[in-house]
Amino acid sequence: MVFLPAEPPDLHVIHQRIKGNMEVLxxxxxxxxxxxxxxxxxxxxxxxxxxxxxxSDFLLMKLMDIFPLPELINFLEANEVxxxxxxxxxxxxxxxxxxxxxxxxxxVNLDPLGKWSKTGLVIYDSSVPIGATPEYLAGHYMLQGxxxxxxxxxxxxxxxxxxxxxxxxxxxxxxxxxxxxxxxxMILANDSNAERLRSVVGNLHRLGVTNTVVSNCDxxxxxxxxxxxxxxxxxxxxxxxxxxxxxxxxxxxxxxxxILRCAHLQKELILSxxxxxxxxxxxxxYIVYCTCSIMVEENEWVVDYALKKRNVRLVATGLDxxxxxxxxxxxxxxxxxxxxxxxxxxxxxxxxxxxxxxFKKFSNAIPQAQKDEEPAAEAATLSAVPETVMEPPPKxxxxxxxxxxxxxxxxxxxxxxxxxxxxxxxPLKAGRPSPKMMRPxxxxxxxxxxxxxxxx
Length: 456
Hints:
Helix content is 45%, strand content 14%. It has helices spanning 11-26, 28-31, 38-53, 57-66, 69-78, 96-105, 134-137, 150-155, 172-180, 194-207, 222-225, 250-253, 256-275, 300-309, 346-349, 368-371, 373-383, 393-397, 403-409, 411-424, 435-455, and strands spanning 85-89, 108-112, 120-126, 141-143, 162-165, 186-190, 212-215, 231-235, 286-291, 312-315, 323-324, 328-329, 332-333, 342-344, 354-361.
């Protein structure tokens, strides 16, 4: 018996079915077929979109939660088209007008990036390689996505400040910070990946940046390594769901564990970034958190976590475009100030998907809940011991003191707990007398021994 190979799905038929189902779902009451539910239409639509655009079912479900259906189609279509090539003028060495004229003379077709950027240029086509012109090699510009200019604009670095770029590779944002500071002050460009730091060093030398120190540390350890910065930029590692046009593998190689793993790392990094900032800085005290992901778990969820764990508040990013962040998503409710965060999408802003939040730190003190984490953990460990499992709530609170008090007074309260608990168990465990019950019995036995000789 010969098995014929399965025929590939007819994409034209699938596309027509997607359009038909979209029309039905937009006016469901009128256009639906009898006996078919909305869930059946949605399940069929999801399967068709997964087949047509080559997405995993998991990622498509996530995207359907974020976007309304018509906008979702626009997002998926935008991911099939590459974003425009953009460059950033290095104002340490030249002006945008002069650079544009030099590139036009070389046969490059370009325009200013937009009213929101004073340094960006968008390249439509070129008769020469943009990454190998004499101007590029001389450090007059940096190849950089439009969306990666936004976090630095939100950070708004000032001259003579101390700034930390916690995850700096490949150095585009670091060099932009340096040019806004006019090579004054000090920038610490850190990345945990030593291999990626090679490109950072190369770019900083080419662009003429002289105020930057490059370090190779785990960002989570940073407040211990060095702190007291005026501003911190955290471009956190993420799932990359905003840059699918650059990396189509994201369509199928991400699952729930990957998203949650990224979110956990981001929560650790954002607390380290906040702890590295000096709230008493005269000009700063700001932290900018950004990702190239559109997942709520990696964006609003992380920002909301930081608001609860540290003395920070959200402030306006200073960007006059972009969509507001979510304050509610499915069954989750976030802090109302998340309206001041900004989301950028490929189908609305013609740039990579991006999320930006700006914090202002108003106190260097860490909230009490953070300090009590270790004592609370110790209390939880103590409560796991059988002797203290049945301890009543009022006495459990006494355990949550300082560490020093615990070390000095731990044995005495433990004995007291044992006595009190055994006293409480007296009616239930009559077969095992407590030490208090045994004390009165000792003299009665002695009396019995004294009585017997008298009776004889």
